[in-house]
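for the recovery benchmark. C-alpha cells below, seq after
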C-alpha cells in the first residue's frame, strides 16, 4: 500500500483524541502538507545554500 499523507494525519489525530479521552494532555499538533520542489528551490535561493538531500526528502514526503 503506498504512503498516504492524509492517512498519517488522520491516525495522528485519532491517537491524540484517544490520549485526551483517557485524561492525558496533548499539545497542539500542527501538520501541514508536504513542501513542493518549487518551495524548496526558493528557500535554497533565498538562503544561498543547498539543503541536505535527506532534509529535502523529509520536507517533500512529510510535513513542511
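predicted aa per position
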Amino acid at each position: 500500500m503506498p504512503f498516504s499523507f492524509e492517512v498519517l494525519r488522520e491516525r495522528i489525530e485519532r491517537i491524540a483524541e484517544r490520549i485526551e479521552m483517557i485524561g492525558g494532555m496533548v499539545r497542539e499538533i500542527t501538520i501541514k502538507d508536504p513542501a513542493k520542489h518549487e518551495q524548496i528551490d526558493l528557500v535554497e535561493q533565498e538562503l544561498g545554500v543547498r539543503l541536505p538531500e535527506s532534509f529535502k526528502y523529509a520536507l517533500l514526503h512529510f510535513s513542511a
